[in-house]
Write a structure and sequence with these properties.
The protein has 287 residues and is mainly α. Helices cover 83% and strands 0% of the residues. The longest helix has 67 residues. The relative contact order is 0.15.
Length: 287
């Protein structure tokens, strides 16, 4: 809320123009390996090490692709500033991969207190850096600084919390079945990506960064609380349901209870957001 009062809607719009491209390449870069790691009943050090290096190689490739696409992105939106923004965000892609396996191992081992600490401390550092940069007049670069600070903080903390360390690069042949599982997860991610990103691409291309910035902030008022609700549910659900696969009836009953709890908590909040849309917008962005 404080940062939004120091920036313009166009600042958010510039980042929202690049976000669909970064989200798409990250989807292919992650390959669904994090979920595949959590779902495995048993896993070896060699398999975890293989997933780490496969993920890092994939993210390195998509980072290069993103950098190469930066001129095309700037041309598509008729906005030359997107060239530098895309190049900087491309540098963050491999950095985010350094913490992926460690996060999955913490989730697999149900280290939810440590994961919750990460969910608080990393955004807190990002918001602090973002606010200071916005206060100093950095404009849209303050949003990039916020993302960079959050990514670095999350990576450092997860390496401290997780005792696992990668060995020399090596691909174990038993890991390809997990890559196949990750492929199914990626397929779902593509369908979801098309659902939530097409409108932003079209709006940015036809009406520019200011309109897209206003739209993205309004969308965030709805999407961010939902994300805050579904993220912890999903984090708990995956390792828990994995342990219940041998008991289908308990699996179904647990899954239904989780959905009921999410709806019980989430639907009243969505209705309240619709009813109180005007004061919420004024509170969020001061306009």
């Amino acid at each position: 809320i404080a940062i939004a009062r120091l920036l313009l809607p166009s600042d958010y719009g510039l980042l929202a123009m690049v976000a669909p491209v970064v989200d798409l390449v990250m989807l292919f870069g992650n390959l669904g390996l994090s979920q595949a790691l959590v779902q495995q009943e048993t896993i070896t050090q060699r398999q975890v090490n293989s997933l780490f290096w496969i993920g890092m190689a994939a993210l390195g490739i998509v980072a290069i692709i993103t950098a190469c696409l930066s001129p095309a992105i700037a041309w598509f939106y008729h906005e030359p500033r997107l060239l530098e923004i895309t190049l900087v965000l491309a540098l963050l892609i491999p950095l985010s991969g350094l913490s992926s396996v460690h996060n999955s191992l913490l989730s697999r081992n149900m280290q939810f207190v440590r994961l919750a600490t990460l969910d608080v401390l990393a955004p807190m550092m990002g918001l602090t850096v973002g606010f200071l940069c916005a206060w100093l007049g950095w404009g849209y670069w303050s949003l990039i600084a916020m993302s960079t600070a959050e990514t670095i903080t999350s990576t450092v903390l997860v390496w401290i919390y997780s005792k696992w360390r990668p060995n020399a690069p090596h691909i174990d042949k038993d890991v390809w079945s997990m890559v196949k599982v990750g492929g199914h997860v990626t397929g779902y991610g593509l369908a979801n990506y098309a659902l939530v990103s097409a409108d932003k691409v079209l709006l940015g291309a036809t009406h520019g960064e200011t309109a897209l910035g206003i739209y993205s902030k309004g969308y965030g008022i709805i999407a961010q609380p939902i994300s805050q609700l579904t993220l912890p549910f999903g984090r708990v659900a995956l390792p828990l349901l994995m342990r219940l696969r041998s008991d289908p009836e308990m699996y179904r009953r647990t899954f239904r209870r989780m959905i009921q709890m999410m709806l019980l908590v989430g639907l009243p909040g969505l209705v309240a957001t619709m009813v109180l849309s005007e004061p919420l917008v004024r509170l969020q962005i001061g306009r």
